[in-house]
């Protein structure tokens, strides 16, 4: 008689049961640490201090501002938009920040799965497809406003993580 997959699974079961799960407290702490790191990276870019995150800049309305109610899905969607904006900028200042946002989104997905939240992989907004024209007209302004608003959003996100955001 052939054992097949069932026998292999039964043989591996004791090994798999010994593998410790990642504690969600550690994931949440890692998420907060990464947020603080990104905020520090943005602060180190000197020209981001010149614009308030609440200031309205005509033509840059596609860059998200602060959200009053942050859930895990809202955080992920907003980070996807910022990630898409930063990836479109030619500045070398934002490459690492864009990579950090991808890692932050992965950590958010781990937090969501620990809470049994269905968190679909957000890919940004379709309205950002026409971003090229805005970028050609105002690269510097787009970078400054995006980083300034991202910094404010990340600080709000950090506060919300302490409160335990919903799905």
Describe the structure.
- The chain is mostly helical and 167 residues long.
- The protein has a domain at 78-166: Growth Hormone, Chain: A.
- Helices cover 63% and strands 0% of the residues.
- It has six helices and no strands.
- Helix 2 (24-44) runs antiparallel to helix 4 and helix 3 runs antiparallel to helix 4.
- The mean pLDDT is 77.
- This is Leptin.
- Residues 1-21 form the signal peptide.
- It holds the Pfam family Leptin.
Topology diagram in text:
Blueprint: H1 4-18, H2 24-44, H3 72-88, H4 95-114, H5 131-137, H6 139-163
Helix pairs in contact: 2-4, 2-6, 3-4, 3-6
The amount of helix comes to 55-70%
Largest sheet: none
Shape summary:
elongated
Quickly name the level 1 CATH class of the domain at 78-166: Mainly Alpha
Number of strands: 0
Which percent range describes the beta-strand content? under 5%
Number of helices: 6
Structural class: mainly alpha
- Estimate the mean pLDDT confidence: 77
Low-confidence stretches: none
Oligomer: single chain
CATH architecture of the domain at 78-166: Up-down Bundle
Rounded Rg: 20 Å
């Amino acid at each position: 008689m052939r054992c097949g997959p069932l026998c292999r699974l039964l043989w591996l079961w004791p090994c798999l049961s010994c593998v410790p799960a990642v504690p969600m407290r550690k994931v949440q702490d890692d998420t907060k640490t990464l947020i603080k790191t990104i905020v520090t990276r943005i602060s180190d870019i000197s020209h981001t201090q010149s614009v308030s995150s609440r200031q309205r800049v005509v033509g840059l309305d596609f860059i998200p501002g602060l959200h009053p109610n942050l859930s895990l899905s809202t955080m992920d969607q907003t980070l996807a938009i910022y990630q898409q904006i930063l990836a479109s900028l030619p500045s070398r200042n934002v490459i690492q920040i864009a990579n950090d946002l991808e890692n932050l989104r992965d950590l958010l997905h781990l937090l969501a799965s620990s809470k049994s939240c269905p968190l679909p992989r957000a890919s940004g907004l379709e309205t950002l497809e026409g971003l090229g024209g805005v970028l050609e007209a105002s690269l510097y302004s787009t970078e400054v406003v995006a980083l300034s608003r991202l910094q404010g959003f990340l600080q709000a996100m950090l506060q919300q993580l302490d409160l335990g955001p919903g799905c």
